[in-house]
Inverse folding.
């Protein structure tokens, strides 16, 4: 799991650029800096374990991505959502919110959708 720094905008943007440019994995991006967000990220990471094409990114604060045009689509999709599933080409495929974001079956389905690149 990759956890973006909440207090270092340039480092957070640099890390997310590397993620977006790698074109090697699909990602479930989890938003928030509370216990619930960490639990969602942890559960998603369990679903990613052992799968070379899956990765979880925890974004504690979207403020580190504000003003970055390249990630505007991610920030827009994140509004009101707990998880945004990104394809290998780093396009939004699926979002999860509420209890669905905590369910292993929904996280597994989200990863499957991101690998396929379709919702």
């Amino acid at each position: 799991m990759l956890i973006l720094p909440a207090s270092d905008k340039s480092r957070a943007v640099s890390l997310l650029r590397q993620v977006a440019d790698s074109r090697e994995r699909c990602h479930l991006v989890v938003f928030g800096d509370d216990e619930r967000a960490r639990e969602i990220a942890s559960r998603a990471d369990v679903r990613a374990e052992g799968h070379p094409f899956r990765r979880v990114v925890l974004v504690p604060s979207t403020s580190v991505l504000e003003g970055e045009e390249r990630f505007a689509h991610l920030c827009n999709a994140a509004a009101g959502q707990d998880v945004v599933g990104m394809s290998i080409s780093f396009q939004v495929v699926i979002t999860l919110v509420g209890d669905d974001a905590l369910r292993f079956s929904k996280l597994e389905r989200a990863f499957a959708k991101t690998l396929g690149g379709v919702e």
Observations:
- The CA atoms of residues 3 and 58 lie 5 Å apart.
- The chain has one domain: 2-116.
- The beta strands are 2-3, 26-31, 54-59, 83-86, 92-96.
- The first strand starts at residue 2 and ends at 3.
